[in-house]
Amino acid sequence: MTASVPPSGRVNARRLAQLLGEWRRRGSRHGATDLAAGIRLLVLDGRLPAGTGLPPEREVAAALDVSRTMVASAWDRLRADGLVASRRGAGSWTALPRGAGGGGVLDDSDPPPRVIDLARAVPQAIPGVAAAAEAVLPRLGAELAGHGYHERGLPELRERIAARYTERGLPTSPGEVLVTNGAHQGFALAVRLLTGPGDRVLIEQPTYPNAIEAVRAAHAIPVPVAMTEHGWDLDGLEATLRQAAPRLAYLITDFQNPTGFRLDEAGRERLGAALRRARTPVVVDETQIELDYTDGPAPPPLGAFAGDLVLATGSAGKSHWGGLRIGWVRAPAEVVNRLLAARRGLDLGSPVLDQLVLAELLAGSRNALGERRAMLAARRDALATAVRTQCPDWSFRSPPGGLSLWCRLPAPVSTRIAAVAQNFGVRVVPGSFFAPHGGLEHWLRLPFAEPEETLVEAVRRLSLAATSVAESRTPDTENGPIPVT
Length: 485
What we know:
Layout: E1 9-10, H1 13-20, H2 31-44, E2 52-53, H3 57-64, H4 68-80, E3 84-87, E4 91-94, E5 116-117, H5 129-135, H6 137-143, H7 155-167, E6 177-180, H8 183-194, E7 200-205, H9 209-217, E8 221-226, H10 234-243, E9 248-251, H11 265-278, E10 282-285, H12 303-306, E11 310-315, E12 327-330, H13 333-343, H14 352-364, H15 366-390, E13 404-408, H16 414-421, E14 426-427, E15 443-447, H17 452-472
Parallel strand pairs: 1-2, 5-14, 7-8, 7-9, 9-10, 10-11
Antiparallel strand pairs: 3-4, 6-12, 11-12, 13-15
Helix pairs in contact: 1-3, 2-4, 2-17, 3-4, 5-14, 7-14, 8-9, 8-13, 10-11, 15-17, 16-17
């Protein structure tokens, strides 16, 4: 099958030769294969976009100093793979393969496959959000008679958030809760309040990429402590607290993003003691606390061991819906007051309607949260099965909670796979995004927030991308700005 659409732009033979660079790998006997592999690489990593017109075979042969027969043979291989299309009178141009077999190309009559976004680890809304929004309309009417500014947050919502912490074993009053525009704003406020330019902030490696950016935005210095294959390196954390004297720490002790580890009670007790000795405040990211797929009791919050040094952040984004841009900070009342003062330079409070909706959901969402956990656990298992089947040389552990598999690749090709995967209709975040100084090229985060059939299709496309990288030895490519959640 050939595409019916002629090329919209062209590359000349000289430029094509420059793009190919040192394309020969295995000597003259394999020239056609190597040339086809070089063109395949340029197409799949986007340097020859689909629809780019190719120069005539004789011009390519002259520019590369090879026979026209070799070029024709390479073009035949690429046509068979669906990476080159030709039409009499219009010449040849690049294309993207359709489906696993590569038997065909994408053109204007073929709608492009939906891009599967695995960069955002956020599921769809929990059931009941629309009903909650309708239920709070009478209370919204009462709020309309006032000015609408609640800098600390609606009293009703703060009471319910405080009650949740008390139930978990950390007695909390509404005065110890500040409602924010998402948990990330809470962390950004803490960094703004507690650090200055050049101060060190202890973080895990890997960790949430947006937290790294928040530290950098405050002109502070992220100091990573590597996670181990079993979880936290408590010896390393203790040593870093002693030697680096960080002004602040940022940790995710419940279903760590991206590894999925959870710190047990003994580990929390030891970590809390180390933080107290160093007098280091810590922001504990609890955005995934509700996504626990185990039946056993949860360990107490870190605040039960480190006391007033802990600022706990949470949000509705993972548990209820990302569109409810409501989060919170649980901290000593004096710290809440200081955070509030720091916040006035950024905004003056969170949307009232969103707060009313979340308060309504917190009042009656226990069953819905149970259903959400069951759904996500099934998606986790479906993704795990798909990876084992389609990418058998990738390894991972099935996390007890959270939203992602942290997959170890057989080679340091995470950035390469992420770059090429976009051409197969998948957006995925390379491991390097989860470290302040890059690296982690053996790792790839795969969220399981999407429906099961979508996850299976995503892994199929990723396996194609991984095969392409392995065959073409794709060089590192810039991913550009990928929104990560």
